[in-house]
Amino acid sequence: xxxxxxxxxxxxxxxxxxxxxxxxxxxxxxxxxxxxxxxxxxxxxxxxxxxxxxxxxxxxxxxxxxxxxxxxxxxxxxxxxxxxxxxxxxxxxxxxxxxxxxxxxxxxxxxxxxxxxxxxxxxxxxxxxxxxxxxxxxxx
Amino acid sequence: xxxxxxxxxxxxxxxxxxxxxxxxxxxxxxxxxxxxxxxxxxxxxxxxxxxxxxxxxxxxxxxxxxxxxxxxxxxxxxxxxxxxxxxxxxxxxxxxxxxxxxxxxxxxxxxxxxxxxxxxxxxxxxxxxxxxxxxxxxxx
DNA sequence: CTCTTCTGCTTTTGTAAATTGCATGCCGAA
DNA sequence: TTCGGCATGCAATTTACAAAAGCAGAAGAG
Lengths: 140, 140
Prior knowledge:
The structure is a homodimer.
Chain A: H1 5-20, H2 28-35, H3 39-51, E1 55-58, E2 64-67, H4 76-84, H5 91-94, H6 106-124, H7 127-139
Antiparallel strand pairs in A: 1-2
Helix pairs in contact in A: 1-2, 1-3, 1-4, 1-7, 4-6
Chain A binds a DNA duplex (30 and 30 nucleotides) through helix 3.
């Protein structure tokens, strides 16, 4: 079980945008370079974020991406699920039919609890919280 | 991020052994067939469980596997970590060197919290708890 | 001895993640 | 109105790892 790079890059990208402040428009190339991630990969991720209105895209010269929402109101869960789709630690939770043979499967029981507690964490912290934490680290 | 089949099969296998009671010795073929999982794959998983003393192996005719510990004292975390090694949702947590460029990486911050809350769940429930839950489901 | 079962190692297969490439469309600026 | 920079969308590739299969060997019971 591992956090994917797409999720990681996406969160980092949104944070970078938020840090520039004032809803500035930043070209993707700058975001990618600043975070040291492949631009084309980030492009795909940002398309998902655009669909979820977390960022806004601007074409043409001087184009790029700006924040679509107030970072205080965007939770980590929203960003992650915009990128990966709904969270499923195990297939049979998203698709109960595949688990129909084991209506009493104890693995599902514990995975459901684990998933819930994971989502609680992701829901508890906003992009603004993550930036705040980063500032604290820099200060200390 | 997904729970792996190895983890799932391992937990199911241990539960099956525990359900037979009295530390009976069960050949791997029976465990595999009862859970509908490939025997060779399960074999590798059980080797790890053996090293962690969660199960005990017995060779020769009438050989197989028996429980190595009281199911009341084996947590889901122990089983899972015996199979997969220490839990790392993200690479830079297990290997901080790979993250040295970003000492303030906010992703690490939230992933560490997520990981901790995940492990708390896995630590809270024992094999006996899972079996108990299964019985409840059957009863209702 | 010999048959059965685990053991250890190697190899293959399958699938999803991660990345790259390219043709296209849009937009602002000159 | 044209040009260049930038996003878009889809296709293709590469990489990585999970999942599974294979096989020779060791250990134990009868």
